Recover the amino acids of this structure.
C-alpha cells in the first residue's frame, strides 16, 4: 500500500503578514495622496484660468459701461435741449433743430455684459478655491445690479416709443422721417398738425424722459462700481497680475 505524505508548508510569521499589509497600505495611501496632489494642481490651474478670463471680461464690461454712460449723457443732453427749445413760443422755435434733437432722443442703446467666465465659475463653485471664498457673493452682487439695468433699459425703450416715437409719427412729415432715419439728408422741418398744446404736452413728457435717463445712468455707474469691486477681489484672492 502506497502512503502519501502532505508537503510541509511553512507558516508565515506575523511580521511577514504585517509587512505585506504595510506595503499595500503605503501603496494605496501614496496613490491617494498622488491623486489629491494631481487634482489640487489641476484645480488650481483651472481656477487661475477662469479668474484671468473673468478679469479680462470685466475689463471689457467696464470699458463698455464707460462708453454706454457717455452715450447716455448725450441722450440726456439732447433731451434737455428739446425741453429748453420748447420753452419758446411756437413761432420762434427752430423746427429743423428741434426735429434733429428729437430724433437723437430716439436712439437709445443697451448694455450687454460678458458672461462666459461668470457662468463657468458658477458651475464650478464646488472647487475648494471658489467654495472657500467670497467670490459667489461678489458675482451675485454684480449680476443682481445687471438685472436692474436690464429692467431699467426695457422701461426706457418703452418710454421712448410711447413718447418720442409717437410724437415723431404724429408730427413729422413722412419725408422728414425718411430723411432723418433712412437717407440722412436735409429736412424741411415742417411739423404737421401741431398745436401749442401738443408742444407743451411733449415738453412735459420730456421731464419724465430726463428723469429716467438720470436713473438709468446711475444704474450704469453702479454696475461699473460692482464690476470694479469684483475685479479687485479676484486680483487679491487669486493673486492675478494683469
Amino acid at each position: 500500500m502506497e502512503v502519501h505524505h502532505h508537503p510541509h508548508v511553512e507558516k508565515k510569521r506575523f511580521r511577514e503578514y504585517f509587512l505585506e499589509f504595510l506595503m499595500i497600505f503605503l501603496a494605496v495611501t501614496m496613490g491617494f495622496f498622488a491623486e489629491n496632489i494631481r487634482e489640487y494642481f489641476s484645480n488650481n490651474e483651472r481656477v487661475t484660468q477662469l479668474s484671468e478670463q473673468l478679469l479680462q471680461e470685466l475689463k471689457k464690461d467696464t470699458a463698455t459701461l464707460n462708453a454706454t454712460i457717455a452715450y447716455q449723457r448725450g441722450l440726456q443732453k439732447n433731451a434737455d435741449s428739446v425741453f429748453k427749445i420748447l420753452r419758446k413760443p411756437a413761432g420762434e422755435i427752430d423746427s429743423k433743430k428741434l426735429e434733429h434733437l428729437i430724433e437723437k432722443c430716439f436712439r437709445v442703446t443697451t448694455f450687454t455684459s460678458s458672461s462666459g467666465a461668470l457662468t463657468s465659475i458658477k458651475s464650478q463653485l464646488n472647487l475648494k478655491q471658489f467654495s472657500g471664498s467670497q467670490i459667489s457673493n461678489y458675482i451675485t452682487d454684480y449680476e443682481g445690479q445687471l438685472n436692474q439695468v436690464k429692467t431699467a433699459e426695457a422701461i426706457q425703450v418703452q418710454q421712448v416709443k410711447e413718447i418720442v416715437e409717437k410724437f415723431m409719427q404724429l408730427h413729422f412729415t413722412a419725408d422728414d422721417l425718411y430723411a432723418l432715419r433712412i437717407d440722412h439728408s436735409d429736412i424741411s422741418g415742417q411739423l404737421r398738425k401741431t398745436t401749442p398744446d401738443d408742444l407743451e404736452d411733449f415738453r412735459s413728457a420730456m421731464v419724465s424722459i430726463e428723469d429716467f435717463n438720470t436713473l438709468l445712468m446711475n444704474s450704469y455707474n453702479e454696475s461699473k462700481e460692482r464690476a470694479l469691486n469684483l475685479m479687485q477681489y479676484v486680483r487679491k484672492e487669486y493673486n492675478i497680475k494683469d
Summary: The chain has a mean pLDDT of 87. The chain has one domain: 14-237. Residues 7 and 13 are 19 Å apart (CA to CA). The chain is about 75% helix and 0% strand.
